[in-house]
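Input sequence (411 aa), recorded before submission:
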Amino acid sequence: MKNLIKNEMILFFRKKNLITFAFACLSVLFIFNFYFEVNYQHYASDTVIQIKEEIKKAEVNSNAIENRLAGLKEAKAEQKIISETEVLLNHWQFEKEKANYERVLWDSGQIENNENEIRKTQIERDINALNTQVDEKMLLDYSGMYRTHHRDLLNREKIMNAYQQEDILIPINPRTPTGASILSEALSGFNPILLLILLCAIIWNSDMWSSEYDHNGFQLLFTLPYKKSSIYLVRTLLRILFTLLGAAFILLLLYGLGTLKYGSGLEQLLITNNQGINSMNLFDEHVESLLNTDFVSSIAQVILLKGLFTFLYLISFISFISVSSLLSKEKGLSVFVPSILMMITYLLVQTTTNVASLKFIPSCYLLTSNILTGGMGMSMLLATIVLMATSSLLNMVAIFNLTYKDLNGIR
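Predicted structure, token format:
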């Protein structure tokens, strides 16, 4: 068995795979500089555009409520209605004033000097929204009351309180590429790092079995004095191990780059939710329709959970490559089929940056009218169970094929 393991190590660490690994490491440097840092640098301008929209909403709503208030007073409406309308008017006037001030701070080009003032203004705006207590029907007439939706406002309050309890300043730029934040994003799907890791997995393993057919190596391999199932499992498990180590190195390299330049960021807190896996990366579009189970977690906990899920997915993915390579017997097909699976996964199944289950509840959600636009998903635990079952089933299919079917004259 030692010779078999040694032979598998030689096969995996050949020139093609080593060059691919070196290219992947260089790609991480490129992605850090031209993806994560560029997003960070554009945050101020993106925020200014967003705040300008919020100012427009505040102006429109202020004018509409002012006219309504004048009409109510002229009609001598109930004092309760007039009082609530005045409260709503004060909210929008305050929101317009503070939003204008925050826009100036972001647009000044001196964000580092204005960081404390920006943070203070953001907190004041949220407290103003939280303290505006009026009839729910009145709120429906005016968009943008909570900037996004009420659930998001409550989550911002949770984060604010959590940071205050920990005596940590709330970061004003969530895109700051600290080691922890970019590692969390890399494990969230729909980003170039995950795509890079999946591409490496395909290149490293796509010819796992199909290459044996080129030089009759398949026949030779299974004449060794070991069970066919043992040979299959040794190769597949070693490939999984080496691929996971390669993926871990890529992720650690990314974390190291962020930590060296912007700090570890391990003190960051995130809002997490049991519905951690979602379709089309559009969780936020349906977030108000889902069970409100949001809670504050440290980013380190989120990274550990997402890392576990990502590695379990990779095990399932490599198992699929192994079976595909074994059954197709052609290098082209053994590359094409996993590539299609990778693209489907990349587009349809992700964990969002701030959404990950830390409570082990095997739950799922389904909005039948919006299945293909984000209205379906499952908790991390249920997704993990599905992945493990899928990996086991794929490998059982391969072992059955080897044991009971005639492959190139070998039984």
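Checked by second reader. The two ends are 21 Å apart (CA to CA).
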